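Checked the freezer inventory, then went back to the computational side. Two predictions to log before the end of the day. The first one is the construct we discussed on Monday; recording sequence and tokens without edits.
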Amino acid sequence: MRSVVALALLLVMPSAVSASPPVVSVEMSNFKFAPSHVQLPAGVPVVLHLSNVAGGGHNFSAPEFFAAAKLDAQSAALVHDGTVEVPSHGSVDLALVPAEGQFRLKCTHMLHPSFGMKGTITVHR
């Protein structure tokens, strides 16, 4: 009887079970972002998964993007002046709601943008 009641509650209240936001992965290596052109839906919660597969440190610098997005408190604490540091062979997850627009992306470590470590973030409706 209890299982029937529990099942009935789940069917009546589907909003009680919330889906996790989609994960968009960006891989950093020497000297590129993959993908270098990140596409996100505007106003939709997403987890931005940044992974550094290189032996040295990299960062994900997009000040205008982070200024326009809504980040949860834990994620906001990882962003400093629009930049997220990702240690070698490490990863960082950022929960956010992106705002519509086109934003520049680069690694600000010395000469990394010159070697091709740059891209764009396009947030569209």
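The second is the one RB wanted added to the comparison set:
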Amino acid sequence: MLPYKIEVPQELVDDIRTYTSDKPEFNRLLEGTELSDDQIKLAIRLYLDRFNTSPPPLSRKYKVDDFPSYGLLFEGVMIQCLTMAGIVSTRNFLNFNDAGVSFTVNDKGQAYQGWLQMLMSQHAVKVQDIKVSLNAEEGFDYIASPEDFYPYMH
């Protein structure tokens, strides 16, 4: 199934919006929200694709409803959302100077980059750990302990 065909529950979109406080009542400088529901859904699909195609490879392709870790999914989607918002912020940056008076509009690009760098470095380690674990589980299913071979002695 192609990533853009993956169904994204509104509950996950709402959770992302709640975590980031990307709601009209919290956005004093914006009218409405920074990212639309469609953009958040795209971020979810993009992250699922990134997880499913990054090494180490897994035979199973995960979707929202069977993803192995809600926290990991959430972090990955946040990285995608920050990337999307950072691109818009950078594109709309304006530094204006007139008669010695400076004025800056939409100067959030650097802040977004800082958040992204921190989240990405932590997230990469978590993805690697869970994928190695999932890979081992796929390959071995269940590894018996030597204690399983001996009857329990009192």
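For RB: Strands lie at 94-98, 101-105. The chain has a mean pLDDT of 80. Let me know if you want it refolded.
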